Protein backbone atom coordinates (compact mmCIF):
# COMPACT_ATOMS: atom_id res chain seq x y z
CA UNK A 1 0.00 0.00 0.00
CA UNK A 2 1.44 3.37 -1.00
CA UNK A 3 0.63 6.92 -0.01
CA UNK A 4 1.71 10.34 -1.19
CA UNK A 5 0.85 13.99 -0.67
CA UNK A 6 0.39 14.42 -4.44
CA UNK A 7 -2.99 13.37 -5.84
CA UNK A 8 -1.56 13.33 -9.36
CA UNK A 9 1.09 10.77 -8.38
CA UNK A 10 -1.48 8.67 -6.54
CA UNK A 11 -3.71 8.75 -9.63
CA UNK A 12 -0.79 7.40 -11.70
CA UNK A 13 -0.46 4.52 -9.22
CA UNK A 14 -4.17 3.82 -9.58
CA UNK A 15 -3.86 3.71 -13.37
CA UNK A 16 -1.17 1.07 -12.92
CA UNK A 17 -3.48 -0.87 -10.55
CA UNK A 18 -1.40 -0.24 -7.43
CA UNK A 19 -3.06 0.46 -4.10
CA UNK A 20 -2.30 4.05 -3.08
CA UNK A 21 -4.01 6.95 -1.37
CA UNK A 22 -3.41 10.63 -0.60
CA UNK A 23 -2.31 11.53 2.92
CA UNK A 24 0.09 13.57 5.04
CA UNK A 25 3.20 11.84 6.40
CA UNK A 26 2.51 13.44 9.79
CA UNK A 27 -0.88 11.71 10.03
CA UNK A 28 -1.19 8.44 8.15
CA UNK A 29 -4.70 6.91 8.35
CA UNK A 30 -3.51 3.35 9.01
CA UNK A 31 -4.02 1.43 12.25
CA UNK A 32 -1.06 1.39 14.66
CA UNK A 33 1.11 -1.71 14.56
CA UNK A 34 -0.40 -3.02 11.33
CA UNK A 35 2.64 -2.92 8.99
CA UNK A 36 5.43 -5.46 8.69
CA UNK A 37 7.61 -2.90 6.93
CA UNK A 38 7.52 0.77 5.88
CA UNK A 39 9.58 2.69 3.35
CA UNK A 40 10.10 6.48 3.35
CA UNK A 41 12.11 7.66 0.34
CA UNK A 42 12.93 11.36 -0.22
CA UNK A 43 10.15 12.60 2.06
CA UNK A 44 11.49 13.70 5.44
CA UNK A 45 13.99 16.19 3.99
CA UNK A 46 11.03 18.32 2.84
CA UNK A 47 9.87 19.11 6.42
CA UNK A 48 11.08 22.52 7.53
CA UNK A 49 11.65 22.03 11.28
CA UNK A 50 13.46 19.48 13.42
CA UNK A 51 10.23 18.89 15.35
CA UNK A 52 8.27 17.98 12.22
CA UNK A 53 11.05 15.72 10.93
CA UNK A 54 11.07 13.86 14.27
CA UNK A 55 7.26 13.64 14.27
CA UNK A 56 7.33 12.08 10.80
CA UNK A 57 9.71 9.34 11.95
CA UNK A 58 7.57 8.77 15.06
CA UNK A 59 4.50 8.37 12.83
CA UNK A 60 6.40 5.89 10.66
CA UNK A 61 7.32 3.88 13.76
CA UNK A 62 3.70 3.93 14.95
CA UNK A 63 2.61 2.00 11.86
CA UNK A 64 5.06 -0.87 12.47
CA UNK A 65 4.27 -4.03 14.40
CA UNK A 66 6.83 -5.03 17.07
CA UNK A 67 9.82 -6.41 15.20
CA UNK A 68 8.79 -4.62 12.01
CA UNK A 69 11.36 -2.62 10.06
CA UNK A 70 11.47 0.72 8.25
CA UNK A 71 13.85 2.07 5.61
CA UNK A 72 14.41 5.84 5.41
CA UNK A 73 16.29 7.78 2.71
CA UNK A 74 17.03 11.53 2.90
CA UNK A 75 19.27 13.82 0.86
CA UNK A 76 22.83 14.16 2.20
CA UNK A 77 24.73 17.37 2.73
CA UNK A 78 27.83 15.43 1.70
CA UNK A 79 27.48 14.89 -2.03
CA UNK A 80 31.15 13.93 -2.07
CA UNK A 81 31.88 11.19 0.46
CA UNK A 82 35.11 9.22 0.99
CA UNK A 83 36.62 10.94 -2.05
CA UNK A 84 33.75 9.76 -4.26
CA UNK A 85 31.34 12.15 -5.94
CA UNK A 86 27.67 11.21 -5.93
CA UNK A 87 25.83 10.45 -9.15
CA UNK A 88 24.09 13.80 -8.64
CA UNK A 89 27.40 15.70 -8.99
CA UNK A 90 28.75 13.43 -11.73
CA UNK A 91 25.81 14.30 -13.95
CA UNK A 92 26.71 18.00 -13.99
CA UNK A 93 28.12 17.89 -17.52
CA UNK A 94 25.00 16.36 -19.00
CA UNK A 95 23.01 18.87 -17.00
CA UNK A 96 24.88 21.76 -18.59
CA UNK A 97 23.98 20.44 -22.04
CA UNK A 98 20.32 20.29 -21.05
CA UNK A 99 20.56 23.82 -19.68
CA UNK A 100 21.27 24.93 -23.24
CA UNK A 101 18.00 23.30 -24.30
CA UNK A 102 16.17 25.20 -21.57
CA UNK A 103 17.77 28.45 -22.67
CA UNK A 104 16.31 27.95 -26.16
CA UNK A 105 12.80 27.87 -24.79
CA UNK A 106 12.31 24.28 -23.64
CA UNK A 107 12.02 22.88 -20.13
CA UNK A 108 12.00 19.41 -18.61
CA UNK A 109 9.88 17.98 -15.84
CA UNK A 110 11.89 16.18 -13.15
CA UNK A 111 11.52 12.41 -13.43
CA UNK A 112 11.96 11.59 -9.76
CA UNK A 113 12.67 13.03 -6.35
CA UNK A 114 16.12 11.47 -6.10
CA UNK A 115 17.42 14.90 -7.08
CA UNK A 116 16.20 18.17 -8.58
CA UNK A 117 15.68 18.64 -12.28
CA UNK A 118 18.55 19.75 -14.49
CA UNK A 119 17.40 23.33 -14.74
CA UNK A 120 19.48 26.41 -15.38
CA UNK A 121 21.25 27.88 -12.33
CA UNK A 122 19.22 30.22 -10.19
CA UNK A 123 20.94 32.54 -7.73
CA UNK A 124 17.83 34.18 -6.25
CA UNK A 125 16.84 34.02 -2.58
CA UNK A 126 13.54 33.46 -0.81
CA UNK A 127 12.07 34.48 2.53
CA UNK A 128 12.94 32.22 5.47
CA UNK A 129 10.68 29.18 5.86
CA UNK A 130 11.81 28.19 9.33
CA UNK A 131 12.73 29.82 12.62
CA UNK A 132 15.26 27.29 13.90
CA UNK A 133 18.26 27.87 11.64
CA UNK A 134 21.32 26.99 13.66
CA UNK A 135 25.07 26.81 13.35
CA UNK A 136 25.53 23.51 11.50
CA UNK A 137 28.38 21.15 12.29
CA UNK A 138 29.03 19.73 8.80
CA UNK A 139 30.43 22.77 7.02
CA UNK A 140 27.20 24.54 6.15
CA UNK A 141 27.28 28.31 6.18
CA UNK A 142 24.63 29.85 8.45
CA UNK A 143 22.24 32.21 6.73
CA UNK A 144 23.29 35.53 8.21
CA UNK A 145 20.39 37.44 6.66
CA UNK A 146 17.84 34.78 7.68
CA UNK A 147 16.96 34.05 4.07
CA UNK A 148 17.11 30.70 2.33
CA UNK A 149 19.51 30.33 -0.60
CA UNK A 150 18.33 28.86 -3.88
CA UNK A 151 20.47 25.89 -4.84
CA UNK A 152 22.35 25.69 -8.15
CA UNK A 153 21.55 22.26 -9.54
CA UNK A 154 24.26 19.58 -9.75
CA UNK A 155 26.58 21.42 -7.35
CA UNK A 156 27.65 20.81 -3.76
CA UNK A 157 25.41 22.08 -0.97
CA UNK A 158 26.52 25.14 0.99
CA UNK A 159 23.55 25.29 3.33
CA UNK A 160 21.49 22.61 5.05
CA UNK A 161 18.27 24.55 4.53
CA UNK A 162 17.66 25.66 0.96
CA UNK A 163 15.26 25.90 -1.95
CA UNK A 164 15.61 23.87 -5.15
CA UNK A 165 14.16 25.27 -8.41
CA UNK A 166 11.80 22.95 -10.30
CA UNK A 167 10.72 23.67 -13.87
CA UNK A 168 7.33 22.10 -14.60
CA UNK A 169 6.51 21.31 -18.19
CA UNK A 170 3.05 21.51 -19.75
CA UNK A 171 -0.32 22.21 -18.20
CA UNK A 172 -2.21 25.47 -17.90
CA UNK A 173 -0.45 28.33 -16.19
CA UNK A 174 -2.31 29.88 -13.28
CA UNK A 175 -2.23 33.61 -12.73
CA UNK A 176 -0.20 33.37 -9.55
CA UNK A 177 2.50 31.18 -11.10
CA UNK A 178 5.79 32.81 -12.06
CA UNK A 179 6.93 32.26 -15.64
CA UNK A 180 10.40 32.66 -17.13
CA UNK A 181 10.83 34.45 -20.45
CA UNK A 182 13.84 34.13 -22.76
CA UNK A 183 14.94 35.57 -26.09
CA UNK A 184 14.41 33.17 -28.95
CA UNK A 185 17.79 32.19 -30.54
CA UNK A 186 18.84 33.84 -33.79
CA UNK A 187 18.65 37.43 -32.59
CA UNK A 188 14.86 37.55 -32.58
CA UNK A 189 13.30 40.14 -30.29
CA UNK A 190 10.34 37.86 -29.66
CA UNK A 191 9.94 36.63 -26.07
CA UNK A 192 9.05 33.03 -25.45
CA UNK A 193 7.53 31.76 -22.21
CA UNK A 194 9.03 28.86 -20.29
CA UNK A 195 7.18 26.61 -17.92
CA UNK A 196 6.54 27.88 -14.36
CA UNK A 197 9.43 27.63 -11.91
CA UNK A 198 8.62 26.47 -8.37
CA UNK A 199 10.99 26.38 -5.41
CA UNK A 200 10.85 23.34 -3.15
CA UNK A 201 12.21 23.40 0.39
CA UNK A 202 14.91 20.88 1.38
CA UNK A 203 16.76 20.19 4.61
CA UNK A 204 19.83 18.17 3.62
CA UNK A 205 21.14 15.93 6.40
CA UNK A 206 24.69 15.86 7.78
CA UNK A 207 26.48 12.62 8.56
CA UNK A 208 25.01 11.08 11.73
CA UNK A 209 22.06 13.49 11.87
CA UNK A 210 19.35 11.11 10.66
CA UNK A 211 20.65 8.31 12.88
CA UNK A 212 20.68 10.65 15.89
CA UNK A 213 17.07 11.75 15.27
CA UNK A 214 15.93 8.12 14.98
CA UNK A 215 17.89 7.10 18.09
CA UNK A 216 16.07 9.75 20.13
CA UNK A 217 12.89 7.65 19.87
CA UNK A 218 12.49 4.97 22.55
CA UNK A 219 10.20 2.83 20.38
CA UNK A 220 12.77 1.96 17.69
CA UNK A 221 16.31 0.69 17.33
CA UNK A 222 18.67 1.67 14.52
CA UNK A 223 19.74 -1.56 12.83
CA UNK A 224 21.91 0.07 10.20
CA UNK A 225 22.99 3.53 9.06
CA UNK A 226 24.75 4.06 5.74
CA UNK A 227 25.48 6.39 2.81
CA UNK A 228 24.13 5.64 -0.67
CA UNK A 229 24.71 7.88 -3.69
CA UNK A 230 24.20 11.24 -2.00
CA UNK A 231 21.64 9.99 0.53
CA UNK A 232 21.82 9.16 4.23
CA UNK A 233 19.86 6.02 5.02
CA UNK A 234 18.76 4.12 8.12
CA UNK A 235 17.02 0.83 8.76
CA UNK A 236 14.90 0.89 11.92
CA UNK A 237 13.39 -1.93 13.98
CA UNK A 238 10.24 -1.41 16.06
CA UNK A 239 10.78 -2.48 19.68
From TrEMBL:
The record's section on PANTHER family has: ALKYLATED DNA REPAIR PROTEIN ALKB HOMOLOG 8
Please give the name of this protein: ALKB8 protein
Q: Name one GO molecular function term.
A: tRNA (5-carboxymethyluridine(34)-5-O)-methyltransferase activity
Q: Where is the composition biased (Low complexity)?
A: 116-127
Which UniProt keywords are listed? Answer: Methyltransferase, Transferase
Q: Which CDD domains match?
A: AdoMet_MTases (cd02440)
Which superkingdom? Eukaryota
**UniProt feature, compositional bias: Basic and acidic residues:** 86-102
One GO-annotated biological process of the protein = tRNA wobble uridine modification
Organism of derivation: Alaudala cheleensis
Q: Which residues form the Methyltransferase type domain?
A: 1-72
InterPro entries xref list: AlkB_tRNA_MeTrf/Diox, Methyltransf_11, SAM-dependent_MTases_sf
User: According to its record, what are the GO cellular component terms?
Assistant: cytoplasm; nucleus
**What SUPFAM superfamilies does the record point to?**
S-adenosyl-L-methionine-dependent methyltransferases
Region Disordered: which residues?
86-129
Q: Upper taxonomic classification of the species? A: Eukaryota, Metazoa, Chordata, Craniata, Vertebrata
Amino acid sequence: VGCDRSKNLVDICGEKHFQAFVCDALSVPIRSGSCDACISIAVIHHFSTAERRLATIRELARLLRPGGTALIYVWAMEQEYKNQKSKYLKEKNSSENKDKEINTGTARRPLSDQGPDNSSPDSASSDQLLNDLKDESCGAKPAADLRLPVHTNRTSFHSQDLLVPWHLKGGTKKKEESVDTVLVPGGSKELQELSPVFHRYYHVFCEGELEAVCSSLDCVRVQKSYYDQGNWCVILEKL
